[in-house]
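hey can u check if this looks right to u? its 266 residues, i copy pasted from the old doc so theres a chance i mangled smth
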Amino acid sequence: MIAANFDYESPRTLSEALELLSSREDAKILAGGHSLLPAMKLRLATPALLVDLGRISGLNYIREVGDRVSIGAMTTHAEVVSSGVLQRSSPLLPQAASQIGDTQVRNCGTIGGSLAQAHPAADYPAAVLALDAEIVAVGRGGERPIKARDFFTGMFSTALRPDEIIIEVRVPTTGGQGVAYKKHHHPASGFAVVGVAVRLKVSSGRIDSIAVGITGVSHNAYPEAAERVANDVDVLGDYYASAEYRKHLAAVLTRRAVEEAAGLRK
């Protein structure tokens, strides 16, 4: 299908982008385009104005700041995967990014765009939830940090306000902790039928703390205790994977991710 007609703007500064975004109720931000454009072609999204962030400098970076790593919103999935800083200091995010789509998608799609789209089967949401990450948005009133656990509010729905743009993602360094991301890919789309991210700390052969993020199971990604990963949630079902199958996958992948993070499985 072909997208509905829309206007297009390519501002050079963040302030210009915010002004354009506030000028129309039906404006949308265009980052990498690998989430929004397919939805537009299917007429699932019909914005009248696209505000392209591609010409704005200063939104593509990965840098370690104290006990966290800051990632610019326009950083591509491929850059997340190949980042020496992240591989050394917070490797869960590269693990998740390496399983997004294919090479073309990873080279064009961006972390900010993916999080803002909030696809219920996207990979990043599980990772940022397990990491207790912070997503920084900016609007005409200034910057606003949003905890990952408060960010995803429903299917394709987030805590972002209509006039806000994601500018940065902040994840903690995880030295001394085990991390793992396990995923069952949909064979056609590459999205997660179920994806499980785990971060844990082990001492004296026992798990001291554990955080689990789940994607693909319900209408939005969510954090959950390892022993009840699919309890008390509205589990999705479709022709490929029934709700019962997804619940089973969630339990199996969580066990595998915990074992890998704890160093019990390769």
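The CA atoms of residues 60 and 75 lie 5 Å apart.
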